[in-house]
Design goal:
Number of strands of chain A: 11
Helix content of chain A: under 10%
Number of strands of chain B: 11
Number of helices of chain B: 0
Oligomer: heterodimer
Strand content of chain A: over 45%
Order of helices and strands of chain B: EEEEEEEEEEE
Structural class of chain A: mainly beta
Shape of chain B: globular
Largest sheet of chain B: 6 strands, mixed
Largest interface: A-B, 27 and 23 residues
Distance between the termini of chain A: 38 Å
Strand content of chain B: over 45%
Order of helices and strands of chain A: EEEEEEEEEEE
Shape of chain A: globular
Chain lengths: ~110, ~110
């Protein structure tokens, strides 16, 4: 069966520090991978999506970046966090956009 | 105007009531998703549909492609149904566009 792992579950980081959130998928090949952010009281916002290794599409200009070094690994990074980067980050996957979305449990990031 | 609009934004009902949450969209889509987000933040996919109607337990989802409208119904609602329900559409390039969500509270 397919599973998705996202870590860490919670993270408190000071402004200006780097960020690395990791997401891995098991049990499927060549999934579409997504990073979403949900600010407090707001809806989900697509940050990045990837249809293959090394293929990253960015939806919102910001100081975040994403990488897909392996087929089932998706990493969200920042060199210097801003206060506005605080939020709930969710990784998700689907089968080439044709299946339901499967979400990780999310990472709650607080930038202080 | 958002490409995906949900209504109502908040809904409070008594246990046992029939619940309807609506979703309208303004873009061409290949599929529509209904998601459920519990207070802890985890999101579960309830339905993915491109036409007609789907049923799973007490949940029913319908879509009218011509009218660009979908509804999520919950029959015999229960306090454990309390969550945020999110409508999302796949609108080309394998991206999803999300509604703002409907916060549902079912009181015992």
């Amino acid at each position: 069966s397919q599973t998705i792992h996202q870590w860490p579950a919670t993270l408190v980081q000071p402004v200006g520090s780097p960020l690395s959130l990791e997401c891995t998928v098991e049990g499927t090949s060549n999934p579409n991978l997504y990073w979403y952010r949900q600010a407090a009281g707001r809806g989900l916002q697509l940050l990045f999506y990837s249809v293959g290794i090394g293929q990253i599409s960015s939806e919102v200009p910001q100081n975040l970046s994403a990488s897909r070094p392996q087929d089932r690994q998706f990493i969200l990074s920042s060199k210097k966090l801003l206060l506005s980067d605080s939020g709930f980050y969710l990784c998700a996957w689907s089968v080439q956009g044709r299946s339901p979305l499967h979400f990780g449990n999310g990472t709650r990031l607080t930038v202080t | 105007k958002n490409e995906v609009e949900q209504s109502p934004q908040n809904l409070t009902a008594q246990e046992g009531e029939f619940i309807t949450i609506n979703c309208s969209y303004s873009v061409g889509i290949s599929a529509l998703h209904w998601l459920q987000q519990h207070p802890g933040g985890g999101i579960v996919s309830l339905f993915m549909l491109s036409s007609g109607k789907k049923k799973h337990g007490r949940l029913i989802a319908t879509i009218n492609i011509q009218e660009k409208h979908s509804s999520l119904h919950i029959t015999a609602s229960h306090p454990r149904d309390s969550a945020v329900y999110i409508c999302a559409v796949t609108a080309g390039a394998q991206k999803l566009v999300f509604g703002q969500g409907t916060r549902l509270t079912i009181n015992p």
